[in-house]
Structure formats: structure tokens, C-alpha cells
Design goal:
This protein is an alpha+beta fold. The protein folds into two domains: about 5-75, no CATH class; about 90-240, no CATH class. Helix content is about 55%, strand content about 15%. The protein contains 13 helices and seven strands. The chain has helices at about 5-10, 15-20, 25-30, 35-40, 45-55, 55-65, 70-95, 105-115, 120-130, 135-150, 155-165, 200-205, 210-215, and strands at about 105, 170-175, 180, 185, 190-195, 220-230, 240. The strands form three sheets. Strands 5-2-6 form a three-stranded antiparallel sheet. Strands 1-7 form a two-stranded parallel ribbon. A hairpin with a 2-residue loop joins strand 3 and strand 4. Helix 2 (about 15-20) packs parallel to helix 5 and helix 8 crosses helix 10. It is elongated and about 80 Å long. Pfam families: F-box.
Length: about 240
């Protein structure tokens, strides 16, 4: 037995499983490279079943109707690949729509709707869309989806943004509202402008529900919505004229 195996043998099996169960998927993969016995722990259903349940609770409920189901690690990896491929389709869609560094709000909302139809979970967004290398508009799509569709608590989203090192990324949001009528005359259109970080949007540290404006788009009294990246030499637009 090599040194790493000997080190493991001094740890009770229950303790080893508890250690493995507390790790993230990337850390588990690293652990499996340490020794043969840790690789056996890595392949255990006891480790992968709770990970699957946490990431895809609705799918887990369906699978549990089969009491004899086994192979959680393989099923987790298969499901992750499917979600990764679906996320890539959304990423490519947004990037293709913004080749000229402009994106219509209908396309932004379509990307959010795609995540909904794919039944993305909070963990899926964290792992696949909350990435610093992605365009901040894609981060924003994930943020919008988590808060407005999944109804994830703002504190959990804030923690996810910070752990992904994207919380300080900023956007500049502008929108124009139809002027109000006053004694038979319509007043000048109202202009609103907010410069916000992603964490500001998540925790609503503002006197206006900016995400609500984005979620509704340019309808009713809102004539136009525009989003640009702060400190960028070019602007990324989210524009749609009123119906």
C-alpha cells in the first residue's frame, strides 16, 4: 500500500464519506486523483446522490420513484454535459445577437425564457453563466433568471456573485417613460438612469426596481430601455420600441 493509501486507512470510512460529501464537484475530482481508495469514495452513490438532489431537486424526485436506481455519478455527469450544451446554445445566441455590440431586449428576454424552458437550476446558473470570462450581459441574463424566475433569495444570489468574482461588474441602465397627462397636455417624457453593479441589482440597493423594468421590457408607459457596460469603449444596447 502506498503512502496515500496508508493515510486514508487511518480515517474511518464514515468520516471519509462525510469529508467527500462536503466537497464541491471540482474538489471531488481532485480528491479522486489522490489515491485508489479516494477514487473509490469518489465513485460512491452516497457522495453523488445528495449532489444531484441539490442541483436538480425536481428531476431527483422523479428518479426516486424507482427505488432500485443506481449510478448517481454517471447520471450526474451525463446531466451536467446536457446542461453545459444547453448553456452553450444560450451563450452563442446572445453573442450572435450582439455581434455589433447591441442586443434588443426581446433577445435578452428570449435568453431568459430559454433557461426557463431548459429547467435550469440555481447551481446550473452558478456553474455555467456566472463566469468572469463571459460577457456581463450573459451574467445579467443569469442574474435576471435567478431572481425573477427561480425566485432565489437575494442573499443567496449575492453570495454566488461574490464567490464567482463578478459581483462588481457594472451596467448602466437607462429608460424612457411616456410623459404623464396634465390638464389635457402630455408632459415631457421622463428619463431615468442608473449605474449599478450586479450585486446592487441583486440586493436592490436602489430606489427603483431596475430588474422589474428589464423584466417588463418596453411596454405600456416605458418607451425604450437601454443597457450599456460601464467603463467600456463601446456600448451594449438593450432596446425595444413600444408596441
Amino acid at each position: 500500500m502506498n503512502q496515500s493509501d496508508y493515510t486514508y486507512s487511518s480515517i474511518h470510512n464514515d468520516v471519509a464519506l462525510k469529508i467527500a460529501s462536503s466537497l464541491t464537484v471540482p474538489d471531488l475530482s481532485s480528491l479522486s486523483c489522490c489515491s485508489r481508495v479516494w477514487r473509490e469514495i469518489w465513485g460512491s452513490d452516497c457522495v453523488w446522490e445528495p449532489l444531484f438532489k441539490q442541483r436538480w431537486p425536481l428531476l431527483y424526485e422523479g428518479i426516486m420513484k424507482d427505488p432500485n436506481f443506481k449510478g448517481w455519478k454517471g447520471f450526474y455527469i451525463k446531466q451536467h454535459k446536457e446542461m453545459r450544451d444547453q448553456a452553450e446554445s444560450v451563450i452563442k445566441f446572445v453573442e450572435q445577437c450582439s455581434k455589433s455590440e447591441s442586443l434588443q431586449v426581446k433577445d435578452h428576454l428570449k435568453a431568459v425564457e430559454c433557461l426557463k424552458s431548459m429547467r435550469f437550476g440555481f447551481k446550473d446558473v452558478q456553474m455555467l453563466l456566472f463566469k468572469p470570462k463571459l460577457n456581463v450581459l450573459l451574467n445579467l441574463v443569469g442574474l435576471h433568471y435567478c431572481l425573477n424566475i427561480l425566485r432565489v433569495p437575494a442573499s443567496d444570489v449575492k453570495e454566488a456573485l461574490e464567490s464567482s468574482n463578478i459581483s462588481d461588474r457594472q451596467v448602466h441602465v437607462k429608460w424612457w417613460k411616456l410623459g404623464r397627462w396634465f390638464y389635457g397636455f402630455r408632459m415631457r417624457d421622463e428619463f431615468h438612469s442608473r449605474c449599478l453593479s450586479l450585486v446592487d441589482l441583486a440586493t436592490l440597493k436602489d430606489d427603483t426596481d431596475v430588474l422589474g423594468v428589464l423584466h417588463r421590457g418596453a411596454i405600456h408607459e416605458v418607451l425604450q430601455v437601454q443597457i450599456s457596460i460601464v467603463n467600456s469603449t463601446s456600448s451594449l444596447w438593450l432596446i425595444q420600441n413600444s408596441q
